[in-house]
Amino acid sequence: MPSERAMKTGSACPPPPGPGKLRLYSMRFCPYAQRTRLFLAAKGIQFETINVNLKDKPDWFLEKAPLGKVPVLEKDGKIVYESLVCNEYLDGIYPDKCVTPSDPLEKARQSMVLALWDAKVIGFYYKLMTGKEDERPALGKQFLDGLQFIEKALTQPFFSGNKAGALDYNLWPWFERLCMLKPIGVELSVDKFPQLTAWMERMLQLPEVKTCYFSPEAHAQFGKSWMAGSPDYDIGLEE
Amino acid sequence: MPSERAMKTGSACPPPPGPGKLRLYSMRFCPYAQRTRLFLAAKGIQFETINVNLKDKPDWFLEKAPLGKVPVLEKDGKIVYESLVCNEYLDGIYPDKCVTPSDPLEKARQSMVLALWDAKVIGFYYKLMTGKEDERPALGKQFLDGLQFIEKALTQPFFSGNKAGALDYNLWPWFERLCMLKPIGVELSVDKFPQLTAWMERMLQLPEVKTCYFSPEAHAQFGKSWMAGSPDYDIGLEE
Predict the structure, then answer these.
(1) Domains of chain A by range and CATH?
(2) Which residues of B fall below an 8 Å CB-CB distance to A?
(3) Statement: residue B3 has pLDDT above 80
(4) What is the pLDDT of residue B1?
(5) Would you place residue A238 in the very low, low, confident or very high pLDDT band (cuts 50, 70, 90)?
(6) Out of the domains of life, which is the source (chains A, B) (predicted)?
(7) CA distance A153 to chain B (A)
């Protein structure tokens, strides 16, 4: 297992993973990479991780993944990137404990919730993190209004039914990070978000969520370094 | 078959399609809706169309599809929106002549090309259409640089192999509209884009492409009305 420390510009390209071995290129605090880490944990897949410095990206990383983002999977000389693409690919090549729905309508329903998430929620999340103080009340309202679409989509214990599945894992990373919006006055109240707040409690109990979890303090520490323009990818790791 | 004229704010909600019948909500010149029209044509699926005025959207349309965009499918009380979601859903419920790949790696490859398309090409297409004249040379270069990723992804007669498939249909609508960039000096040369220019010739021969086709003149006329802020959705239709 290589070091967890993020590899940056100038680093030597790591040798390819051995035959049949799966490798994940990740960044420890990236919510998109966490989507894939959750899939891997839920399915019990063995893999190795190489963390990448997304501010000073190694050339070899950009050659593998021209979008320059994580997650990226590598196996037997094949590269797959984009979180949702990686996750469906994992269910395709490791069909045990498949978490992607096979029913066409249920699959479409989950994809439509993610489309609402992208269009109505996620942009405001990042604007809240980086926006000016006087813009925050309006952005906070837009963010919470958007989240009502997600609240309404949750009609069972989990987004995927009675058990957590693809949609739960693909949404969770930003809910784990909601704590970062609390200091700026944005949080989910039980009365306005009864389904989502109860779901968050249920998610926190799942072994796969615990495996991929960072504490509010770690997220806050990373967020602070990121907003200051010098993200500390190696928080909590030994030298 | 209802009129092809676009329905707008204040129109009465059309009664639902009959049992087992498929309906497409569309806009005649929308490239995203064309993706789904191409799937429907390639698969030979019977459907009815309701065109929607996307500037003055009917309330009943926004209730069905909260993102307010086309394509939208309706069948037996179920609604599906977002072009890629609609298309995979169609292959799921009408498995005859399936054009979505079943191999996980090939499916991932096609999705990655679409991710490159979204990140490296499509934004510049719209900026070129709406941007200022002095920005066009830089935007044109970025657009053509991005298209090189797509050129490199085309290593067989079609993006999907020896026959047109999902990726071909999901990319084609913007290639049909490339003619709109010609007057502002942006076009694909055979020497820089030998694969894409040959592919365009092949695509134009396909019956499904012909079925969903509008001429350069019609695209130009619609584009002009759209950029002037009063899109003419009903070009060429009788009163």
Answers:
(1) 1-99 (3.40.30.10), 104-211 (1.20.1050.10)
(2) 66-67, 78, 80-82, 84-86, 88-89, 91-93, 103-105, 107-108, 111-112, 115-116, 119-120, 149
(3) no
(4) 42
(5) confident
(6) Eukaryota
(7) 13
